[in-house]
Specification:
alpha/beta
């Protein structure tokens, strides 16, 4: 692309993001009150008599230049169901990602919360900037990420490693080309400023928060930036305070351990073999077969994405075993293929926002680091699952952030962290590391659980009761709480 054409593309990207917005708020002024109306069809409706309502908030593209261009953030709300005497304020919620849409989350997550929490809080969902209906971002073809079938995501040997690095560079180039001037501003820090703008627009002196996975990282950033505006904060399935690339490497190793547990769980019960070694052999036959001859666009990249998704939630293990057995029986992939298309508009936005947010935190790895870590992981297991290593793209990122988003603050009130003892997506080491940056905070660990997402999603009375008491009365445990977990699901 020539320089004039590139400049035109960048200006067009920004113009599309900022067109038809309300008049910007001047520096030092409070944002106007949020005005709510009906929600789009993508937001589910809660059971009557409760209802969900949606609004839009104009925020600066760059909080450090509040008089500059503005974008919009989409917000949803389900009001507290109890009387005013029980109300505790607002509870912002975030489902994780980066790149997860939070607009429907006010309804879906709220439905799982203990009744005492639903009665006490207005639950506030929002699409983080760059996601869903909040100025969604795109990276175009993303270096072939959406090709069907995709190339094998586990490079074996120098030629494949070089091709892998080339695809990462192409992905970074596509993000720079299509996201334009939005690229440096879709960061965790800027989203934390948006959260505080939502708080102010709702007229609340403090914001309570429930964030899952990446949402825990976002919540820790909010405590650093606005320690005196933090209400009660629950950080569930905690992302550790590390560089994103280091976190991705840690996660890839945890997934290897989880997959071995899956092989042992399936042995003798799922028709894949009587021992863990036999189940592993069946698994490798499926992957090798799809790598050699993809089925209707379903190859090794699609297979690894399905495995990555399944390993994080034990209720998905039986369907994964069914899919493996189905392929070995008749060569079909219907049970392995996810319901939603990977190249859907929603998925494209999610994948773009995921890389952009991670690479906005910096610093990225070097190409040699990537190759070294892949080789080390393949030394542990020749056929790992590397799907979650999105921050590898940051090695070739066009925007180099000047600083990392700060996490935690000694001025913030204590928060409550929740973790699963064997979660492969956000390993418990992350919660223990972040805890050291949050003085006086406490940790609740669900033992013998192998899934991602703990509070109000696993139905554990110990976890839910401890967190609800903290949210309602501010009652925090005096030490780490260990809750008995369910163990592995019974094999079929």
């Amino acid at each position: 692309m020539t320089r004039p054409a590139r400049r035109t593309a960048l200006l067009c990207a920004l113009a599309a993001a900022t067109a038809l917005l309300p008049a910007p708020v001047r520096a030092g002024e409070a944002p106007p009150p949020l005005r709510f109306t009906t929600c789009p069809d993508s937001v589910p409706r809660p059971a009557a008599p409760e209802r969900v309502e949606c609004g839009r908030l104009s925020v600066p593209l760059d909080r450090h230049h509040p008089s500059g261009p503005h974008i919009e953030v989409a917000v949803s709300r389900v009001r507290a169901s109890g009387p005013p005497a029980e109300r505790r304020g607002i509870l912002l919620v975030n489902p994780g990602g980066p790149g997860g849409s939070g607009l429907p989350y006010a309804v879906t997550k709220r439905a799982k919360l203990p009744e005492s929490v639903r009665r006490a809080y207005d639950v506030i969902g929002f699409d983080p900037r760059g996601v869903g209906r909040s100025t969604p971002v795109t990276c175009g073809p993303m270096g072939g990420l959406f090709d069907s079938p995709g190339s094998d995501p586990v490079p074996a040997g120098p030629p494949a490693e070089r091709a892998y690095l080339t695809s990462l560079r192409s992905l970074a180039d596509d993000c720079a080309r299509h996201a334009g001037r939005l690229l440096p501003h879709l960061s965790t820090e800027q989203t934390a400023y948006d959260m505080d703008a939502i708080r102010a627009a709702l007229g609340e002196p403090r914001a309570s928060f429930l964030g899952v996975s990446y949402g825990s990282y976002l919540g820790a950033a909010y405590t650093a930036l606005f320690p005196h505006r933090v209400g009660r904060m629950v950080l569930d399935s905690v992302v550790g305070p590390w560089d994103w690339y280091d976190f991705d490497v840690l996660q890839s190793r945890a997934l290897l351990r989880q997959r071995d547990i899956f092989f042992a769980w399936a042995a003798g019960h799922q028709g894949l073999g009587g021992t863990p070694a036999e189940v592993r052999a069946s698994y490798l036959r499926v992957r090798a077969g799809l790598a050699a001859r993809p089925v209707a666009g379903f190859g090794p990249a699609e297979f690894d994405r399905a495995v990555y998704r399944a390993l994080g939630r034990t209720e998905r293990w039986a369907p994964l075993a069914d899919g493996l057995r189905g392929y070995l029986t008749d060569g079909g992939v219907g049970a392995l293929r996810p319901a939603g298309a990977f190249d859907s508009p929603e998925s494209r936005t999610h994948e773009a926002a995921n890389r952009i947010v991670k690479c906005a935190e910096g610093p990225g790895p070097g190409p040699r680091d990537i190759v070294t870590d892949i080789r080390r992981t393949r030394h542990l297991d020749p056929q790992p699952v590397l799907t979650g290593m999105e921050a590898s793209t940051c090695a070739f990122w066009h925007h180099r952030p000047a600083h990392r988003t700060p996490l935690g603050s000694p001025q913030a009130p204590p928060v409550l962290l929740v973790a699963s003892a064997h979660d492969p997506v956000t390993p418990v080491e992350g919660a223990r590391s972040l805890l050291r940056l949050l003085p006086g905070s406490r940790l609740v660990v669900l033992d013998d659980d192998y899934s991602h997402g703990v509070f109000a999603s696993r139905g554990n009375r110990c976890v839910d009761g401890t967190v609800a008491a903290y949210l309602i009365d501010g009652t925090a445990p005096t030490a780490e709480v260990r809750c008995p977990g369910p163990g592995l699901p019974a094999p079929e």
